[in-house]
Fold:
Amino acid sequence: MHVPEQGFTLRFGGTVAKADGAYQNEDSYTASPRRGIYAMSDGASVSFNSALWARMLVRRFARRPMVNPEWVCEAADEFAHMHNRDAMSWNQQASFDKGSFASLLGLRRIRKPDQVQVFAVGDTIAALCDGDKVITSFPYQSADQFDESPQLISTRPSLNNFVTDTNFYADHTAIWNLSDYNEPAVLCVTDALGKWLLSRQAGEASRIALLKSIRNRYQLTTFVRREREARRMRRDDTTLLVLW
Structure:
């Protein structure tokens, strides 16, 4: 068993919006290969300025990848200070008061290059693969789980009480030993692509191999549009990180 000699690093990162034109993609991701930190977030479309909230979460994780109550409160305070509620229209104020919501997935290489720590809140997932096989995924393990309402991080502190649970960090963290596998790889994906990945039917070509073969935005966009048109993938912002 071994980790490839070139080490565990980002091979591709890209995103495709659910609509063309002026629509703002509400997915966000960041990568810091030198520090071995990667983060991804999916802002909930029904909430206020969720694209900004998603960007803030991934950038904060890249700076300080230890999510706790203080971390979440500081993020919410920063978001609030970036908006002038008094200058908003009444409907904007109502939306702002309801809060913004987003998932957060963070990867951190903790023992170069053998171990990866995965932190996740919500329906953005990481999949540990060996060759063309999915060994495990976190936090979801089956496609059916994407049909449930996810737990998300909010800009409203009162809606983040779950972060104060004693076992919060442990319950939202997994550690994977890459050296246990011959061809280890990790795929990070937002929900539409996550459900597609875990919905693989017996006998069909490897979905892992397909995603690992993507090398540029054009290839990702072509793949996503094809799967949407065939109704194998839900139309939503779609983001992929490939690491091995």
User: Anything to note?
Assistant: The radius of gyration is 18 Å. Residues 189 and 240 are 5 Å apart (CA to CA).
